[in-house]
Amino acid sequence: MKKLLQLLIILNSLYIVSQDLNTDLLIHYTFNGDLNDSSGNGFNGTNFGATYTDDRHGNENSAIYFDGVNDFISMPNLAQLKPNLPVSFSFWIKYDDYSSLNSDLFNTSFEEDKSSGVFFTLQSSTNNYSLAYGDGGNNYIASTRRTYNSNRAAEINEWTHLVLVVNSALDMKIYVNCVDYGGTTSGSGGNLFYSTTAGNLGRHDRSISALANYFKGSLDDFKYWGRALSSQEVSNELCTLLSIRDIKVSNEEPKIYPNPTSNILNIKEGTQKIEKICVFDAFGRQVSISNYQMSIDMSSLSNGVYFVKTYFNIGFYTKKIILIK
User: Fold this and answer.
1) What percent of the chain has pLDDT over 90?
2) Counting Cβ atoms within 10 Å, is residue 96 exposed (0-12), middle (13-18) or buried (19+)?
3) pLDDT for the residue 8
4) Is 168 a domain residue?
5) What DSSP state is assigned to residue 302?
6) pLDDT digits (tens, 9 = 90+) for 166-217
7) Are 180 and 319 within one domain?
8) What is the DSSP string of 123-190?
9) How many domains does the chain contain in total?
């Protein structure tokens, strides 16, 4: 009876921490044959040459393609789309190559020779995902920006889901297929500054003396929030809604048992080779990460609901585990 009561409390707590992903959602472009904003705000985009292409499921005209030459999409030039921090973004992306001229995906405003807006690209020396914002100072240099470089490099010709969260100068995150690989911060810029120009997808124009950089690759399901997504939203809710291939075929999925458990959790591979195992608590905090092993010792964790994600080269499998000692 006592353990049953604990279980009910745990499940109720999980429900309470769930949030509505539509809260403070500013823009949602699905790219299903148009640039209409599905958030309900009516912030439709304007297309300058980008074409529609197949999405990650092979559906025609359900994603947008940028040719890396002169294609881009302009967001409305409105104050609502230039919020103070924190902000968050979520999207699917497929890079054609690692060229530094073709890796700038978006900015929320820009001004030539003046560091401004939130912008996303790849770190040129590592090809790691890079998130930054400018403070309005002259030129895009370390003293006028704040940058976060993920420890994870981009994949070429492969659809990848990214969630970007900018809380503050020293608190940014990049989730790659729902996993936070950590990263490093740099720069010494001040507060986020917006110019008088509109934000763009597919283009970033940094210098009057040089041509703009244009993204080369595909983009789908772009979302922009005027708040910080919590790790719980990313790990437990948003990633549950994603179509990163979540293994559901009985001979492919691993066996994770017992459930509920009081200590040791056993894991047995199915037909798919496990590359990595992550354990998240009910708030989306990653409490364990490891390569494949036959068992996980959960004795150091508190009673509660946990999510065990086993990652494969074709996707992941998620199982909710209840720990009651």
Assistant:
1) 54
2) middle
3) 46
4) yes
5) P
6) 999 999 999 988 888 899 999 999 999 999 999 999 998 877 667 889 999 9
7) no
8) -TTT-EEEEEEE-S-BSSSGGGEEEEEEEEEPPBSS-EEEEEEEEETTEEEEEETTEE--EEEE----
9) 2
Q: Are residues 264 and 161 in the same domain?
A: no
Domain contains 105? yes
166 and 200, same domain (yes or no)? yes
Same-domain pairing of 38 and 141: yes
Burial (CB < 10 A; 0-12, 13-18, 19+), residue 109, is buried
| pLDDT above 50 for 301 | yes
Q: Which tokens go with 298?
A: 């959960």
Span 132-138, mean pLDDT? 94
At residue 199, the pLDDT reads: 95
**160: its two tokens:** 């990848």
CB 220 within 8 A of CB 55: yes
On whether both 193 and 220 belong to a single domain, the answer is: yes
Q: What is the pTM (predicted TM-score) of this model?
A: 0.73
Contact 86, 227 (CB under 8 A): yes
Residue 298: CB atoms within 10 A of its CB come to: 20
**CATH code at position 129:** 2.60.120.200
Would you say residue 271 lies in a domain?
yes
Domain with 297 in it: 2-15+246-323
How many residues in the chain? 325
Instruction: Report the pLDDT value the prediction gives residue 20, as an integer from 0 to 100.
Output: 82
**Per-residue pLDDT tens digits for 67-79:** 999 999 999 999 9
Residue 241 domain-assigned? no
222 plus 251 within the same structural domain: no
